[in-house]
Design brief:
374 residues; mainly alpha; two-stranded antiparallel ribbon; two-stranded antiparallel sheet; 12 helices; 8 strands
């Protein structure tokens, strides 16, 4: 185990610094491709919906105004949440969790696994951690050379340990974790509403275009097109009662409907799954492998009840729940645990929160309990 504590990444002979730097920048640029794809799709959807549907197709001014106002509200909230998820300030693990050089030397020179476990236990005895590895030892990251706080995990893509890591999402080019989990939930929710809104408003025109196409096929206009001519009936069908929309505009609207439908299905399942995780106070990683405590694995080890679990992510102020501003409780390091004794006066683990000194507990009904400064 001693050898496993070291990060022995040795560059092959002749591997120059320039090549390593070039590879690093290429990898960083490559990771932005999914984000650019999402931005491109949203940009095109703006053109398809605002220009082709609202301006060129819909003739009612009142209907245009209603659609445009609602669309831009959803777009702004969706884009704002997406921006905050991507560029959230992911704070590093505090220095007190990192092993000093002297402790690291002792750890690397230890000859047995028990000796290493003892060194880590002695170092972590004053740290606010309750979770353990499968073997019952302190959770330690040999890459970052630190003891992992509760619910923290190492992200191999970001090459760092992340507080309350849920997963690394390529669509935001960032880890979804304590610092941006609320933003990620809002991003999924507003993206789902955005797609559902486009679907519902495009559906009547999609049906009309589909009926027009069926009439077009029934009149054998496609055969006439092959020989280079059109009948008056075909021209009437093509021009139709669709305002100024041309054939290209119709394709944009139909395609926007199908793209919104496709994304709504995937977003709906993903958003529903994360709502389940929020209600049970679990991360994606904890859903697949329950956190290990001194008494064993417990998938509900951090659950404080559905409502308290919700407030742990979204905060105490209902007027801020739907706004992508940070209102999550805590600091990402210490988490309340459910009381084992039901006769206690609080649902929170007071012993855990007492580590924060005189700071307000997270579910106190006052504004200062959101810990925005952390």
């Amino acid at each position: 185990m001693a050898s496993s504590m070291q990060n022995n990444r040795v560059s092959p002979p002749g591997y120059c610094v320039c090549c390593r730097t070039c590879n690093m920048w290429c990898w960083r640029a490559f990771k932005w491709l999914p984000v650019l794809l999402i931005v491109s799709i949203v940009t095109w959807s703006y053109y398809a919906y605002v220009i082709q549907l609202c301006i060129f197709t819909i003739e009612s001014t009142v209907q245009q105004c209603i659609y445009l106002v609602l669309y831009h509200i959803l777009l702004i909230m969706f884009a704002w949440s997406y921006w905050r998820t991507i560029f959230a300030d992911i704070k590093p693990i505090p220095e007190k969790y990192k092993l000093p050089e002297a402790e690291l030397e002792k750890l690397l020179s230890a000859e047995t696994e028990d000796a290493q476990r003892t060194i880590l236990e002695n170092f972590a005895k004053d740290l606010p951690i309750v979770t353990r590895t499968m073997s019952g030892s302190v959770r330690y990251c040999n890459r970052c050379v630190l003891v992992k706080p509760d619910r923290a995990h190492h992200c191999s893509i970001c090459s760092r340990c992340v507080l309350k890591m849920d997963h690394h999402c390529p669509w935001v080019n960032n880890c979804v974790c304590f610092h941006n989990y609320k933003f990620f939930m809002l991003f999924l929710g507003y993206a789902l509403l955005y797609c559902l809104f486009i679907m519902s408003t495009c559906l009547p025109y999609f049906i009309r275009f589909w009926k027009m196409y069926q009439e077009y096929k029934h009149a054998h206009c496609d055969n006439l097109f092959d020989i280079g001519t059109f009948s008056k009936q075909c021209m009437d069908i093509l021009n139709g009662d669709f305002g100024m929309s041309g054939s290209a505009g119709r394709y944009h609207i139909v395609f926007a409907f199908f793209v919104a439908l496709m994304f709504a299905i995937s977003l709906g399942s993903l958003f529903g799954y994360h709502c389940y995780l929020v209600a049970h106070n679990r991360t994606t990683l904890e859903a697949f492998r329950a956190p290990m405590f001194r008494g064993g694995a417990d998938k509900n080890g951090f659950s404080m009840g559905a409502y308290n679990n919700f407030k742990e992510v979204f905060g105490n102020s209902p007027n801020k729940w739907v706004v992508p501003v940070f209102t999550s409780f805590g600091d990402g390091i210490v988490y309340p645990l459910p009381q084992q004794d039901e006769d206690t006066e609080s649902l929170l683990s007071s012993e855990r929160w007492d580590r924060w000194g005189e700071r307000a507990r997270p579910f106190d009904e006052r504004e200062s309990s959101s810990f925005d400064e952390l």
